[in-house]
Design brief:
The chain is of the alpha/beta class and 440 residues long. The chain folds into two domains: 147 residues, Aspartate Aminotransferase, domain 1, CATH 3.90.1150; 253 residues, Aspartate Aminotransferase, domain 2, CATH 3.40.640. The chain contains 15 helices and 13 strands. The strands form three sheets. A seven-stranded mixed sheet has the order 2-8-7-6-5-3-4, with helices on both faces. It starts with 11 loop residues before the first helix and ends with a helix. 44% of the residues are buried.
Amino acid sequence: MITSAVMFENSEAFARELDSKDELSSLREEFFIPTRESMAGKTKPAIAQPEGEKCVYLAGNSLGLQPRNVHKYISEELEDWASFGVEGHFHGRHPWLPYHEFLTEMSARVVGAKPVEVVVMNTLTTNLHLMMVSFYRPDKERFKILVEQGAFPSDQYAVASQANFHGFNPKDAVIELKPRDGEDLLRTEDILDVIEREGDTIALVLLGNVNYLTGQAFEVVPIAEKAHEKGCYIGLNLAHGAGNLHLQLHDWNVDFAVWCSYKYLNSGPGSLAGCFVHERHKDNFDLPRFAGWWGHNKETRFRMGPEFEPLPGAEGWQLSNPPIFQLAALRASLELFDKAGMKQLRAKGDLLTGYLEFLVKDTPAGYLSIITPADPAQRGSQLSIRFSSNPKEMLKAFKDEGVICDFREPDIIRATPVPMYNTFLDVYRFASIIRRFASK
């Protein structure tokens, strides 16, 4: 059993020892791991894992790996479509009509919510816009949106377009939280100060939960308390939080949250997203919303009546019946999260990330710096590493050695050891390449 008090050592033998004590190590066998041969195009894509040396895959914050059961689950739906046609909605092995409900409780456990607060639907930015229809209600006095500077571009585009849609100039309506001069990270006290100072004009506080570039995880509870104290709604974008952090959305008391499922939640490229609406809003049918028939009362939906009667809870924001194949892929992944538990995954993730940090720092002074917070409570599994010179050459060196991570301009490589499928030996191999490259 690995404990959080472990003293790290910079050796392959120590990394292997940590792997031998990892009680979640069997989860790795539930995923397809790319090989150096497949990445080099030397083997044809195949559902059977190709032979060869497995890559060190540290890009789960961009696209999670494929769970082995995805192929089986999608194949079952293809077979039921062939066998039943439209009757698959009622008579398939997993009937399509209620299929999204098979994922509700598992999704709720991943994000720390009640089932009535969660629904799987649409894509992330679509859900963000739908939530802002309900929770961004500007008037002449209270019309601003507070976001972090350097939020993911989709968020920036979304809030600017919402402000513009309501007749406000985004330059006036969007407040960006900026780090102090010479710093990369936002301080909680500075966020609270801005809300205190500007709160009477702020309609919505919208944060990324985990900033995609720096990897900083914000302290949600005091920020949510201050936002509500000043009469603001608060929402979270959990694109880099869902399946990564041990979230407690209900207890944190945020009004809404949205997330994608193709990163840490391993549901495949461009797959479905999730949405949380706090229980206190579940019967507030006076909240403006864009309506669609899948959000209509299930008892009367097929009467095709002219008046929209929303379902209580997050389901009431649904628009259309969801794509079954993508739900099937997500179900395969969520079952693994249920098997492991977010608390246990985060505990392993903290150790993996801590070991990565320990190893990466063992380089010549000035060669690199880590801009992600050192405090495990303020980060997830991602480390953002800034290189003092030639970061793109460093990225090429990783690829040549079978290590997959990603680069963000102008000088940051993001490395993410995902506790579902990464090992301590993966982390050691990554850091060894850095040390070897730095010694040239």
